[in-house]
Amino acid sequence: MPSRLRITPLRPQHLDELAAALRHPAVYEHIGGSVPSAAEFRLGLERALAGPPQGIEQRWFNYLVRHADSRTVLGRLEATVVGRVAEVAFLFAPAVWGNGYASEGLAWLHDELRREAGDVDFWATTLPANRRCQALLRRAGYAEVPPAVAPVLQSYDAGDLVFHRAGRPPAPGAAT
Fold first, then answer.
1. What pTM, to 2 d.p., does this model score?
2. Which of 64, 77, 94, 142 could form a disulfide with 137 if both were Cys (CB 3.0 to 4.6 A apart)?
3. How many domains is the chain partitioned into structurally?
4. In angstroms, rounded to a whole number, what is the distance separating the alpha carbons of residues 175 and 112?
5. Could you confirm whether the keyword Translocase appears in this record (predicted)?
6. How far apart are alpha carbons 35 and 27 in whole angstroms?
7. CATH number of the domain where residue 127 is located
8. Who's near 175: CB < 8 A, 6+ residues apart?
9. Is residue 171 part of a domain?
């Protein structure tokens, strides 16, 4: 089935367009409170695009998601990989929520990280009130786990829910 999405590495020239899609109170309700100014938004993403500080053993992946036909910016996908741990996140414009774009993007991200980082396990965190995110993660094969069993996760804050998905899907016909 052809993808409805066009996903490309995030570049500085995308930041204003991405800001227009994501600087919305509904997006920030579950990720840090108030909507950042345009300058703060740009600075945060410029830091992400610069990559981890020297000497930090992490790989950062940042992608822009557009609608394949209209080329409208829908959101972004990101991941931080440390060893076999791939911590994933996604932000999509509220206007496109409920259309399956985040699910399709997350499936793409899993495949991309397997290609780029090899055999990794996928992790995500969310606030307990973010039921939409939890439902999406469950549909994508994640299971909620106690925070105590998780590796150190960059996005984890006390009280967050933690979700895990094994990196390699079971082989067809394999016992589960």
1. 0.91
2. 142
3. 1
4. 26
5. no
6. 8
7. 3.40.630.30
8. none
9. no
